[in-house]
Known about the structure:
The complex is a heterotrimer of chains A (559), B (100) and C (775).
Chain A: H1 5-22, H2 31-56, H3 64-70, E1 79-86, E2 91-97, H4 101-118, H5 126-145, H6 149-158, H7 160-170, H8 175-203, H9 210-217, H10 232-238, H11 241-258, H12 267-274, H13 277-302, H14 304-330, H15 335-354, H16 369-404, H17 420-434, H18 440-452, H19 457-481, H20 500-518, H21 521-554
Antiparallel strand pairs in A: 1-2
Helix pairs in contact in A: 1-2, 1-5, 2-4, 2-5, 4-5, 4-13, 4-16, 5-6, 5-7, 5-13, 6-8, 7-8, 8-11, 8-12, 9-10, 9-13, 11-13, 11-14, 12-15, 13-15, 13-16, 14-15, 14-19, 15-16, 15-18, 15-19, 16-17, 16-18, 16-20, 16-21, 17-19, 17-20, 18-19, 18-20
Chain B: H1 3-23, H2 27-51, H3 56-87
Helix pairs in contact in B: 1-2, 2-3
Chain C: H1 2-20, H2 27-53, H3 59-66, E1 73-75, H4 81-84, E2 91-102, E3 105-114, H5 115-138, E4 147-148, E5 161-162, H6 166-185, H7 189-207, H8 214-245, H9 268-284, H10 300-317, H11 325-329, H12 335-344, H13 346-356, H14 363-386, H15 390-410, H16 414-441, H17 459-473, E6 476-482, E7 485-488, H18 490-508, H19 513-538, H20 556-571, H21 580-588, H22 611-616, H23 618-641, H24 647-653, H25 655-662, H26 667-739, H27 746-767
Antiparallel strand pairs in C: 1-2, 2-3, 4-5, 6-7
Helix pairs in contact in C: 1-2, 1-6, 2-3, 2-5, 2-6, 5-6, 5-12, 5-16, 5-20, 5-21, 6-7, 7-8, 8-10, 10-13, 10-14, 12-15, 12-16, 13-15, 13-16, 14-15, 14-19, 15-16, 15-18, 15-19, 16-17, 16-18, 16-20, 16-21, 17-19, 17-20, 18-19, 18-23, 19-23
Amino acid sequence: MFADPQFLMSCALFLPVLWGLGLFGFPSRAVSAIRWYALAGACCELAITVQLAGVALGWIDASPAVNASATSLRNDILLGMSLPWIPTWNVNYSLGVDGFSLPLILLTSLIFALSIVASWSIKTHIRGFLFLLLLLETGVMGVFLALDFFLFFVMWEVMLLPMYFLIGLWGGPRREYAAIKFFLYTLAGGVCLLMAMLMVYSASGGSFDLLELARMAQGQAPQPGMDLDQGMALTAAMGDTSLQWRVFVLLLIAFLIKLPAVPLHTWLPDAHVEAPTPVSMILAGILLKLGGYGFLRIAIPICPLGFAEWAWFMVALGVFCVLYGALAALAQSDFKRLVAYSSVSHMGYVLMGLGAFRFQELTGAVLNPDFSTMGLSAATFQMVAHGIVSAGMFFVVGVLYDRVKHRDLRQFGGIASLQPHFSAIAAGIFFAGLGLPGLCGFIGEAFSIFSVWHVDRFFSVGGALGMILTAGYILWALQRVYLGPTYTGPNREYLTEINFREYTVGYLLLAFAIGLGVYPAIALNVIEPASRQLVQQISGSQERQLSLNRASIESPLDK
Amino acid sequence: MSLGAYLAVSAVLFASGLTCMMTKRHALGVLMGVELILNSACLNLIAFARYTSLGIDGQVFALFVIVIAAAEAAVALAIALNYYNNFLTVDVDRGDELKR
Amino acid sequence: MLAWLLPFAGCVVITVLRLKLSRLSAVPGWIGTGSLLVAFCLSLFSAGLWLMTSPAETAASSVSAEETPGIQAAKVGDDAAHETGYSPQRRLVGHWYSLAKFGEIDFPLGYAIDALTVLMFVLVTMISLAVHAYSLVYMADEQTESYQDHHLDHSPGETPERPGRFAHFYAALGLFTFAMLGIVLANGLLQIFIFWELVGFSSYLLIGFYHERRTARLASMKAFLMNRVGDVGFVLGMTILLVTCGTLLLYPVHDLNGNTSGSAPMALPEAFQAAVEKVVPSEENHQPTDLLPSGQGISYALLVAAGLGLLAGCVGKSAQFPLHTWLADAMEGPTPVSALVHSATMVAAGVYLAARIAPLLLPEALLLLAYVGVVTLLLGASMAIVARDLKLVLAHSTISQLGLMLLGIGVGAWEAAIFHLITHAFFKSLLFLGAGSVIHTTHHEQDLEKLGGLRAHLPLTSLTMLIGVIALSGLAVPYVTIFGESLGFSGFHSKDAIVSGAMAFVLKNPHHILLLISVLLGACLTAAYSLRLWLKLFARDTPVDPALQQVHEGPWLMTWPLVVLAFFAAFCALGGEEGLVSTLVEASLSPAPAWFSGSTDEVVSIQWTNASDRHAVHGTAGAMALAAAWLGALIAWALYGLRAISSKDLSRQLTPLVRLASHRWHFDTLYRGFLVLPILNLARHTAWIDRILIDPFIDGCARFSERFSHASQWFDEAMINRFFDNMASSVWAWGLSLRKAQTGHIRQYVLLATMAVIVLFLILFAWMPGGRAGP
């Protein structure tokens, strides 16, 4: 049973929320039991996703029956399943795993487990808090696993509500403002997503299946076995450049909000500053990745032609985000706000990597496909790395805040002599964020910079300049917080060395940061085939489109 | 005698009944005016029955009118009696309760 | 390779043990030192193996047997040679694992071992060993629970205490050694970059070791950021090379038989040359650029820019103009660190890299490098001459000497540059450790004006430092040879080599005469400041400051490293350019690419020199350099030894120059004013945009929609509701007014009914005349 991908994927999807329902069997006084129970659930989830990864990568043999049923999907994704959900509207319950989603799924279950450990510091209404956390995990898993646009959208909205309450109920002083801001921003994105979904639905003749949509958008028949003539009309509708352009713009807005990219990013600092530590860890570690993942799973595959026109813009925006976020981080005096802006800056590298495409003007093929592959892989890797690093950074800030009850950088200094051990962990995590080679932040940054050179060399220069600024604000923050004469600010007497629980989280995150930095191939080998395939798809669809255009120009009489 | 003469008598009767209704403040006076008007109508009906093709219908109708007038007189007298019980008067101008 | 892993293991062990051990223990130090001792022995052993097997082509297998088994390794003999006619190089190149692979683009991690690597291994492990041992004593006061830092300028009343960080120190030192060896060992620019940054990181830790001091904090940050600026260039250079050449490997990977395996990618030098060959003809024909398989044109400027980018990395790491300001500040670290990191090894990494990538540098880049080197040489020397702080003199001297090395690379004499790098490493670490011994024994007194006359108290230190000073200034006794050797210490030989390189270059390109003049001037200044340093410290018999009467030599762990280093500083260059070290260096560096063999270039016309040219002018150049050095030494002697000229008078006459130099040419102010503050301002404005523009915009949107909803509420209430209300109430009012007609008087009703009938009849008859109304 545990080698059956269908079971595993559904289990990964629904286990958290079912487990969370079990929380209500506990009396609300049994705080400790509730915590351990939730942690056990998150660990089960982690085990299941690891098992899923094993099956997906072929380390563990799936049962033969499943193999047979999944072969039709195998060309596009590693594992897949599909059951009818609402047959009237052709909505399916289809889940799948591929090179893009697998690392992110693992990251999700890991970060959720760690954030539940970190939520030991939450004292009020712990049962509700943990339930919302587990519900959120189901939503996130659903987004990462969904292969059906409708399911994706539903899960996208499912995430919204727990997050709203987590910020709005357990947050800081301005939590209501932050929560409503977060909610409205994301909802605006959700509306764009909905519109795009409906446009695609009508153009494709009523399909929500992402794989089908992608095939149609590239000018192939919707089903692999189907004759091309049958699907031709639908394919033509989906392959229409102007439709794809409009859909892509809508998706762009939706995902840029989530990523977040610069003009649409201001919900992030507020939400982070007000959110409690575990929620910040999840928000930065996981939820931001959904934007990038949305590009990889939806926006790029189903609108390759629209993407081709917007790729340049995405890189430019990415570079801008890198520089803007770093500069803004440099000017912050609130520790958590600084880390939040560092997220903006780091996610800029993701955007850079995603857009690292250039097309040949005559044939429309992707120029230097290896570099575009590198860009997509770097973007995915950067998402994973940033998931670990930013979760770690927020954890560090949270641990500090739990003790001294303030986050003002100007009042810190000299923490290192009071918490030498913890400071070492913090320095490690922050240096990973800085992009020190040997730690995971470096790989994504470096490869994004490498990959955008062929789009425009100034982008590489800009990205590289971002490296200086990043080093600047991180070093400055470290210096202001940890170094210097012994801390004499407020609440000094509470500033004790961290306990075992906090060590566990810190060391685990640091270990992953080092592991991914020293041997990134463990993730990149999974990501790379998927990104290469995506590059081929884009290249193919663009070539086909241009040849169609040329044909229509050359022989207008045929029409 | 022509139809016109009957009609003229009836008109006079009608006019005097109407005048009686309008001028009398005594409830029984008003009732008498009503009787006069009814009788003028009866006279008309009978005259039309005699001189036109209305035939026996007009006379039957007149009989109905007389019966109804009797009933009406009984009801009206009962009202007047109650009215008097309540207001200790039979002046119709004083009875404006329905206005409210 | 084992030697490489050992310091790392030591570092890890120390880090782990730190949890268990008390702060008072010296065990971390002994672990670190022990692991380095083993590492040093191993690298000596491998060097010995290398030398013994060097003549035989079949040596490869025996050497690789010494390596970890199972790794594909091979000696690369005449692979690249047969095309261009280079002298065969022996090189072990191997491959560990792939960092990432995107289609054709592979980022493997591997190793390339050649004579230079072995040499650098011996050098680094040796100096590191010396420093480790030395620090056992120097840092001993860190083995305490309450270390009192006297340099803290924050609280004047009390001396703040903090726990000692002995283990921390050794962990960082071990990490540094590991990273440095990684750079030396790496095959491929990306791998070099990884360790390059790690070196910067450990240097950050070590500079900021006394992080309670504000200056140390700032210095460590400055060092890292300055390096980072250079690294941006490095990254961009790598990017260009990756795009144009498709690989970042320096040397191709070979299997045991010396054949490249089928799909082995081209290594950088060849790929780069291929790119250049593609580009040059197209420029001649003024045609659009060639298309590479990747489909993108390459322009010549791009290739130059690649070189410049990589050089920017070197410039940053080696503290060259204009990124030199961090090195002087880096002296905030403990003195042994300065000896190891900031003089002997880390800063040399820039030069090392520049020499490794020299074949990738086009003439323009090299020329620029030469001028950068010259400017740095003079700047550093001028600052060293006026510096009052003992360590600052040495730091500026390091900057200046590194400039000299880069100049050597710039004029094409990179064997000479590496040669000088090695000799410099020995004598500069010697000088720093000597200075450390002075500082240690005088309880952290670094001001040259307050020190003096320590010879009697510190005989061994003064003697070894004298050797170092002489080596640094390149002094020698002219025309005297003993056993066929000219009588000079190591610095003499290596400096000679560079000067002759510069001279040969200038002879061929007379309009770059400035280079030669500056080099000679630099040599003169070097001699002057180094002698000044020694004279100030040791010259007189009695200390100037009575407080210094108590000083004495440190224990054997401090003095023995000095003696060993002094030995090497004196004699490692034995034999000059025909000597062992120099030959080893020459044997391992990449041969000059095609455009060096006299071909002229389009953009800058430069005649490149070769070894024979340099050899031809060697005698003259040596004589000139020596003369310059003696001149400088005499000046120093006159000023500080004999006091024939009052140094105060001289400095008064040269006030503006002195002031400029002692303010370090105002570079810090300049950077602060033109870079740091504007960037911070920009940052503030960016945050301002968020706070003042975007956020209020969003909030404004929210408020607008709130207002709008209020407005629509008002519209609902005020307009629509009121309309219906009004309608209802007007109907009501109408009814009320009609009620007045209902008097309740029956007689009136009858009257009215009658009148209405009459009126109706009248109307009927008025409208229908002729009596037709009737039936």
